[in-house]
Amino acid sequence: MAVIAVFNQKGGVGKTTTCLNVAASLALLGRNPLAIDLDPQAHLTLASGLKLASAAESIAAFYRDDKPLHELVRHLPSGVRLIPSHPELSKIDALYGKSTAITTRLKLGLEQRLAWEEAPVLIDCCPMLGVLSLNAVFAADRVLVPVSADFLSLQGLYRLDAALRVLEGPLQRKIERKAVLTRFDARRKLSYEIFERLKDLLGPDLCDTRISENVSLAESPAHGKDVFAYAPHSPGARDYGNLTVELLSKGFFE
């Protein structure tokens, strides 16, 4: 089981879109992925077509009531299994922020019942480095970092890289990560400039696949669908399909 945290401290970079559509692409390839919505905004849950149920049926119950993760799994028409989120999850930082043991809570929860599976796990993180994101990073084998094609997103990547390097000490291992450029607009010179700067900065840790700015990617969450279900022949579906194949070919989900 490979656990992948989809994380960036900057919002609006396509984090949830990436988690949603990479999971859907993996499902189309028969990989039976599990997605965990670890963001109190519950955007992945809503984008997957699920209405917000009670907190007792969400990942909040895992932290608040010690409910096993496998009892919270929902099966989506796409073939993705999802553990949904709920706004109650926002209280976890306040409740457990001073506990040193909380950082490994999700890792242990996954190992209790789901570690035997070969299916990949993708965690959609909230855009801040707090208790929940630390849970995801400590549980993850690797981190996938969406970076939108703009100057501020590039600056945010520097800060994220520094934060991950600090966490490598307590983890006693290098945090393997790959960045993917999102919201790429071929009509803008800046998009190409950002891509070249990322290549210089990250080298092989930057995915070759770029996610183009695409109407279907923006519209599909409003319909509660991934882009493959909403517009299977769109550029967005093509790009996320290519990204998933690239990550698989490089052993990112192993």
Relevant terms:
alpha/beta, single chain, 8-stranded mixed beta sheet, 11 helices, 254 residues, Rossmann fold
Helix vs. strand class? alpha/beta
Order of helices and strands: EHEHHEEHHEHEHEHEHHH
Helix content: 40-55%
- Indicate the CATH class: Alpha Beta
Q: Globular, elongated, flat, extended or rod-shaped: what is the shape?
A: globular
Quick structural overview:
By secondary structure, this protein is an alpha/beta fold.
What does this entry look like structurally?
The chain has helices at residues 15-28, 43-47, 59-65, 92-96, 105-113, 131-139, 151-171, 189-202, 215-219, 227-230, 235-249; strands at 3-6, 34-38, 74-75, 81-83, 121-125, 142-148, 176-184, 206-212. The protein has 254 residues and is an alpha/beta fold. The protein has a single domain (3-249), classed as Rossmann fold (3-Layer(aba) Sandwich), CATH 3.40.50. The chain has an eight-stranded mixed β-sheet, sandwiched between helices. Helix 7 links the parallel strand 6 and strand 7. Helix 1 (15-28) packs across helix 11. It is globular and about 50 Å long.
